[in-house]
Amino acid sequence: VTLQWGSKEAGAWAKAPLVRGSPYLTMEYHNAIFEFDSKQVLDPQHGFKADGKEVKCPGEAEGSKFEVVLVQSDATWTIWSSHKLKVGCMTEGAVLRAKEPFTGVVRAAITN
């Protein structure tokens, strides 16, 4: 099963194949804004990591590998992108959001 948002006719879309048993979530973007959003919060002392470097929130960073630690569940999500992304972050609601439209693939997994 593949879910798709937006429209190819409009020129901006995202789609996600759902694969039983896959340890990853995969999204393909075309001229769309990447966003990782959770009702949990990021650790305010550490923010997140972009290509291994700590970034305080609110703030911005560029990278192709992001690590997000959620306070309530202590879950670490690792997010990989096929191309560098410039993202901004907020600690309330654990939000990473691309600063501009993105064409490429993003993959995420819980890694702890």
Percent strand: over 45%
Count of discrete alpha- or pi-helical segments spanning 4 or more residues: 0
Instruction: Calculate the terminal CA-CA distance, rounded to whole Å.
Output: 27 Å
Return the structural class.
Answer: mainly beta
Helical percentage:
under 10%
Main sheet characteristics: 10 strands, antiparallel
Ranges where pLDDT stays below 50 over 5 or more residues in a row are none
General shape: globular
Q: Mean pLDDT across all residues, rounded?
A: 91
Radius of gyration, Cα only, in angstroms?
Answer: 14 Å
Element-level helix/strand string: EEEEEEEEEE
Query: Could you give the count of β-strands?
Result: 10
Provide a descriptive summary of the structure in words:
With 112 residues, the protein is mainly β. β5 (48-50) and β6 (53-55) form a beta hairpin. The chain has strands at residues 2-7, 12-17, 25-32, 35-36, 48-50, 53-55, 59-69, 76-90, 95-98, 102-110. Strands 1, 2, 3, 4, 5, 6, 7, 8, 9 and 10 form a ten-stranded antiparallel sheet that branches.
